[in-house]
Specification:
Jelly Rolls, binds fe (ii) ion, three-stranded antiparallel beta sheet
Length: about 180
């Protein structure tokens, strides 16, 4: 089962992504916001070149903001991004204060799945899934976003930010899963 993989990408590309993220990620406290993909493509030639060389195409991207101590309610519980099966890999880049946080991935053991329709996130499709409050989970993996990470966003997951600082990340989604990279 694929959960996640750290991806080796030239540091100049990671810096380009970090810089773009700092200038374009939502200033609101919304944890997940779809960003302007055309602006992104115009502003980030190094990443676009890397995608071309790896035969992958950017579909959309979101800014992920997890406030200190998981302050926003939506960040306190596991979710999945509930993508079609060939669009369920995300490539996440650290932007700010990621090093002392981590992402946990889970298997949903008991409880109900609840589909949330939210066309602000992923182009108007059913975009994520949460779980009834009585749900139980088994942790199956965890990673720190200290460099780019590809992971399966259809697996329940949650960012843990126990620090006093806001954590920012950029999450790139593709037209088709980049299977060759994992
Ligand atoms: Fe997610």
């Amino acid at each position: 089962m694929f959960y996640y993989k750290h991806i080796d990408i030239d540091n100049s590309i990671s810096e380009e992504m970090k810089h773009w993220g700092l200038n374009n990620i939502q200033t609101s406290d919304d944890p997940v916001v779809k960003l302007d993909v055309e602006k992104f493509k115009n502003d980030c030639p190094l990443f676009l070149e890397w995608c071309k060389n790896n035969d992958i195409e950017v579909g959309w991207l979101v800014g992920i903001k997890v406030n200190a101590h998981n302050e926003q309610a939506a960040t306190k519980a596991p979710h999945t991004d509930y993508r079609p099966v060939d669009q369920n890999y995300a490539l996440n880049f650290p932007v700010q204060n990621c090093e002392d946080t981590h992402t946990e991935m889970y298997k949903h053991i008991t409880g109900k799945e609840i589909i949330i329709e939210d066309d602000t996130v992923a182009g108007g499709m059913k975009s994520y899934k949460v779980f009834s409050p009585d749900s139980t989970f088994e942790e199956v993996a965890r990673f720190t976003l200290n460099k780019p990470v590809m992971f399966d966003i259809n697996q329940p997951h949650k960012v843990i930010n126990n620090t006093d600082k806001t954590r920012l990340a950029l999450s790139i989604r593709f037209i088709k899963n980049p299977y060759k990279l994992v």
